[in-house]
Amino acid sequence: MTQSIGEVAEALDVSVDTVRYYEKVGLADGPLRDSGGRRRYSTEEVDWLQFLVRMRSTGMPIRLLHTYAAARRLGPSSAGQRRQILEQHRAEVAARIAELTTSLAHIDYKIDNYARLEADLAGAHHQEEVPA
């Protein structure tokens, strides 16, 4: 079963232009076309595009995706190179997650602090309105 470019873009939650961009810059091979000249994507092509989208969403640079894609085209003999690329990228993503987790903890602290302050102010305001 094949999918149109619109179906692929919708399934990957990206724009049609994004799918075309990956083809234009050589990260994805152009898919087969139907008799009307419209792109038709195989499951394998969609899986590859999904990988590209996921790697970009984690901040992998296009130049590194090019390196990975070139290695992928070499087949199984490049498994070690591709693993190394992904291990390095994983370490970078894990470091960013740790940094974001720390920042999130600070945000939570500030939110809790403001909530306590608001509760204290509301209590003080309520006490002022209560007749003695």
TrEMBL record:
Signal peptide: none annotated. InterPro entries: DNA-bd_dom_put_sf, MerR-type_HTH_dom, MerR_fam. It comes from Rhodococcus antarcticus. The keyword DNA-binding applies. Pfam families: MerR_1 (PF13411). This is MerR family transcriptional regulator. Residues 1-67 form the HTH merR-type domain. Keywords: DNA-binding. PANTHER family: HTH-TYPE TRANSCRIPTIONAL REGULATOR ADHR, REDOX-CYCLING DRUG-SENSING TRANSCRIPTIONAL ACTIVATOR SOXR. The keyword DNA-binding applies. SUPFAM superfamilies: Putative DNA-binding domain (SSF46955).
